[in-house]
Amino acid sequence: MNTYPLKTTRLVNAFIVFASLVFAVNAQAQLNLCTSPCVAAQAVTPGVEASIQLQWRGDVEVIGDAAIVTSKDGNFAVGNATNNTQLGNVAVPLRVTLSGPQRGGAATAFAINEQLVVPAQVSRRAAALGAVQLHYVRTFSVNGISQTASYAIALNQFAPNASRSLNSASDPSASSVGLNRVDLRFNTGKQVEVITAGTKLNAIATLNFDRAGMLDAVWEVATPETTIGQAVYRPLQNVRQALAAGRQVAIQSPALPTDNAGVYRVRLRITSPASDQNAAPVTLSYQVQQGNTARAIDSAALITLASPAPNITLDADTEFSWAHTQGALAYQIEFFDSATPDTLRPITGLQLKPKQTQALLTASVFNRLLLGQTYYWRVVAFDSEGRVMAASELRPILTSP
């Protein structure tokens, strides 16, 4: 049986890693994968969270009515197959059910999509260990037969906020940056932060682009006076930077305001070149609380949770819902790794649209939850001034083993 190699290709807004798999499902079944790490089309910057869209593709010779291709989880590592260091787990199962062909003996093609988040702490630790690349590994199974595939993700060897120089013969003003994607995270690696007043906080924007040119942008922030409803942004810092072709660059914001209690929003608004990012810039939200967070939550009204029930096992279809609180204009789902945390700072979370009272979790939230663990989630409500006005109990939820 032939072994089909992994292939890589570049797409707008992401890069797709094609993993070609071939399964033969019968009494003498064999499962072949690309056993050598395949190289991803784009590098990541150490210490900066990156989002990558993957697509695993292959063929199965289905004997009978159906076959199910599964992968329980993925793992990050540095090193090689016999000497490696594990860096983190991706607790997101993959699954596809294939129907049998109309005529026996024909192979059935399949494709499994995965939205992979490379956490900031994973790439940072890989770089600290002296690695120039990290590996993402998955084991796929069909009818009890398993095989492992992996690909290598290169680590950028340049520092955030410092793109490589343009060719001396080129005129950056004469070319337009081919901007593909902008990802935004806090310097803590999170997309949601709850902090006390005076805590230092920055945002980091990771830009993926494929043509050299000049970037013009503005860091902007909306303060608690306007964030509940139609946010009004004010400029924090102008950015003008020459970018080299085919690279990824990280741009850090100045220190964000954290002096007054309430909900803040921050964004990097790109003014040039023109792209979809201009019309809908990515935003982050963070909440500043005065004094002890636990005391603020204890004194708030209680939100009634509807679903999920306590101690269920989380999956992609788990819906979170709760009763609306009179006067609440915004909600936030928060996750913790303890039922009695010393400080109620979530390890991950999801901020919702005004008055939204149900939601499914995003891939970035899933990717921060480890397999086989018990977590505790709650819903927090904010009033028109961004102050906590209600909160639910902490309810346990499980991740699959």
In a few lines, what is going on in this structure?
It comes from Saccharophagus degradans. By secondary structure, the chain is mostly beta strands.
Task: Describe the protein's architecture and organization.
This protein is mainly beta. The protein folds into three domains: 7-154, Sandwich (Immunoglobulin-like); 172-289, Immunoglobulins (Immunoglobulin-like, Sandwich); 293-398, Immunoglobulins (Immunoglobulin-like, Sandwich). It is built from four helices and 29 strands. The strands form six sheets. Strands 4, 6, 7, 8, 9, 11 and 12 form a seven-stranded mixed beta sheet that branches. Strands 21, 24, 25, 27, 28 and 29 form a six-stranded mixed beta sheet that branches. Strands 1, 2, 3, 5 and 10 form a five-stranded mixed beta sheet that branches. The radius of gyration is 23 Å and the shape is globular. Mean pLDDT is 74; it is low at 1-20, 22-31 and 158-175. Residues 1-29 form the signal peptide.
Please outline the helices and strands.
Elements: E1 7-11, E2 14-24, E3 30-32, E4 38-39, E5 50-61, E6 66-71, E7 74-79, E8 84-90, E9 94-99, E10 107-118, H1 120-128, E11 133-142, E12 145-154, E13 179-186, E14 192-196, E15 203-209, E16 213-222, E17 234-243, E18 248-252, E19 262-272, H2 276-279, E20 283-289, H3 293-298, E21 301-303, E22 305-307, E23 319-322, E24 330-336, E25 348-351, E26 358-360, H4 363-366, E27 374-382, E28 388-392, E29 395-398
Parallel strand pairs: 2-5, 4-12, 14-20, 21-28
Antiparallel strand pairs: 1-2, 2-3, 5-10, 6-9, 6-11, 7-8, 7-11, 11-12, 13-15, 15-18, 16-17, 16-19, 19-20, 22-23, 23-26, 24-25, 24-27, 27-28, 27-29
